[in-house]
TrEMBL record:
The gene is menC. It comes from Lentzea alba. Its cofactor is a divalent metal cation. GO terms for molecular function: metal ion binding; O-succinylbenzoate synthase activity; racemase and epimerase activity. Keywords: Lyase, Magnesium, Metal-binding. Residues 141-233 form the Mandelate racemase/muconate lactonizing enzyme C-terminal domain. The lineage of its organism: Bacteria, Bacillati, Actinomycetota, Actinomycetes, Pseudonocardiales. This is o-succinylbenzoate synthase.
Length: 366
C-alpha cells in the first residue's frame, strides 16, 4: 500500500441538544476528519477533541498544526499503521492527533486486505450493550425527563455528568424515580479535589457502578487515597493515556475500572494494549466516547466488542447526538449497538452530506 494523499476536512455538525459537563457546554461537533488516499484503498478517521482544550490539553487548532508540521512529515508513503506510533514517538504528547493519523492509515490498510477492524482487534461480540452519557441540566425535572426518554429507548445504563452542586440531588432523584435496577454511574471530569472525599462518600448509598475521574488527571495518588475512603469503584478516564499509565494506576490501586478511549491513548493499537493489561489484572474496561460522528463511532464499537469490555460503553446511537450524521446512522436495537463488519472501520461518509457539513479542506500531503 502506498499513501498518495492526506486531507484534513473541517466539519461542524449541530448536536440535537447542548451537552454540558463540568468543563463546558457543547452545542456543535466542531472537529476535523482525516482522509488518507492510497493506491489500494481510502481510509478515514476523526479527531476526537474540541476547538478548546477543556477536556484535555489538545484542541482542533493545535492538532491541525502538529499534524501538518510534525506528524505527517514523518510519514513515508509505504508506512503501515503499526509503524505510526514508533515513527512519531519523538513528538511529545498529541495523542489524539496521533490517533487520528494512525486510525486513517489503519482503515486504508484494513480495507486493502478486506478485513474489518473488529476482526483485526480481536472482537468476540457482534453487538455491544450501549450506555448513554447525560449532561448537566438546568433542573432535576429536566434531567428526569431526559433519563426517562433514554430508558424508554432501551439504553442499558445511564451515566450522569456531575460537578460540585450537581451530584447528590440528581443521583438521588434518578434512583428514586427509576429504582435500583438501573445501571447508574457518574462522571466528574476532574471537578473535585481530595478535600471533597467525605462529600463524594455520600454517593456510596446509591449503589453506583462507578465514579469516573473525580480528581485531576495527574493525581493518581489522590485517586488511590480517595478509593480507600469511598465504596463506589473509581474509574479513570483522563488520567489514562497509555498502557503504562494503566499498569501504574492498577498497581497503585487508583482505579478498579478503566474507561478506554482510543483517541486519548494514541489509537486503537494502544487501546487494545490497555484492554490486555486490564484483563490480565481482572480490571473491567468499557469504551468511552467523545460525541463522535459515525466515522469515530464505527471503530469504537469494534473495540467495545473485545472480551474485556464487560461494562456498557458510551457508544450511543447516532440520533442521541445528531439529527443528521456524516455516515448512515448507527441505531440502538434492544439496548445494543451492532458492530460494523465491513472492511476497515466499516462505515463511510455519505459524500453529499459530508460536503454540506464541511467548512474547510486542507491537503496535508503531498
Ligand atoms: O468524559 O467521557 C467523557 C464527551 C466529551 C468529552 C468527554 C466525555 C464525554 C462524554 C460523552 O461523557 C460520551 C459520549 O456519549 O460520546
Ligand atoms: Mg469521562
Amino acid at each position: 500500500m502506498k499513501i498518495e494523499r492526506i486531507e484534513l476536512l473541517h466539519v461542524a455538525i449541530p448536536l440535537v441538544s447542548p451537552f454540558r459537563t463540568s468543563f463546558g457546554t457543547m452545542t456543535t461537533k466542531d472537529t476535523f476528519l482525516l482522509r488518507v488516499v492510497t493506491d489500494a484503498a481510502e481510509g478515514w478517521s476523526e479527531f476526537a477533541a474540541d476547538p478548546e482544550p477543556l477536556y484535555c490539553s489538545e484542541f482542533v487548532g493545535a492538532a491541525e498544526l502538529v499534524l501538518e508540521q510534525h506528524l505527517v512529515p514523518r510519514v513515508t508513503p509505504e508506512i503501515t499503521a503499526a509503524e505510526v506510533a514508533h515513527r512519531t514517538e519523538a513528538i511529545k504528547g498529541h495523542k489524539l492527533a496521533k490517533a487520528a493519523l494512525e486510525t486513517a492509515i489503519l482503515d486504508a490498510e484494513l480495507r486493502s486486505y478486506g478485513m474489518s477492524i473488529g476482526t483485526f482487534l480481536g472482537a468476540t461480540a457482534s453487538k455491544v450493550p450501549a450506555g448513554v452519557s447525560v449532561g448537566i441540566k438546568n433542573s432535576i425535572p429536566e434531567l428526569i425527563a431526559d433519563v426517562e426518554g433514554y430508558l424508554a429507548e432501551g439504553y442499558a445504563r445511564i451515566k450522569l455528568k456531575i460537578e460540585p452542586g450537581w451530584d447528590l440531588e440528581p443521583v438521588r432523584a434518578v434512583r428514586e424515580r427509576f429504582g435500583s435496577d438501573v445501571l447508574l454511574q457518574v462522571d466528574a471530569n476532574t471537578a473535585y479535589t481530595p478535600a471533597d472525599a467525605e462529600h463524594l462518600r455520600r454517593l456510596d448509598e446509591f449503589d453506583l457502578l462507578l465514579m469516573e475521574q473525580p480528581l485531576e488527571e495527574d493525581d493518581i495518588r489522590g485517586h488511590a487515597l480517595l478509593a480507600q475512603r469511598i465504596r463506589t469503584p473509581i474509574c479513570l478516564d483522563e488520567s489514562i493515556t497509555s498502557a503504562k499509565d494503566a499498569a501504574t494506576a492498577i498497581a497503585l490501586d487508583a482505579c478498579r475500572v478503566i474507561n478506554v478511549k482510543p483517541a486519548r491513548v494514541g489509537g486503537y493499537l494502544e487501546a487494545r494494549r490497555i484492554h490486555d493489561v486490564a484483563v490480565a489484572h481482572g480490571i473491567p474496561v468499557w469504551c468511552g466516547g467523545m460525541l463522535e460522528t459515525g466515522i469515530g463511532r464505527g471503530p469504537n464499537l469494534a473495540l467495545a466488542a473485545l472480551p474485556g469490555f464487560v461494562l456498557p460503553g458510551d457508544v450511543s446511537a447516532s440520533r442521541r447526538y445528531f439529527a443528521e450524521d456524516v455516515t448512515e446512522p448507527f441505531e440502538l436495537e434492544d439496548g445494543f449497538m451492532h458492530v460494523p463488519t465491513g472492511p476497515g472501520i466499516g462505515v463511510d461518509p455519505i459524500p453529499e452530506t459530508l460536503r454540506r457539513f464541511t467548512t474547510a479542506t486542507r491537503v496535508l500531503y503531498p
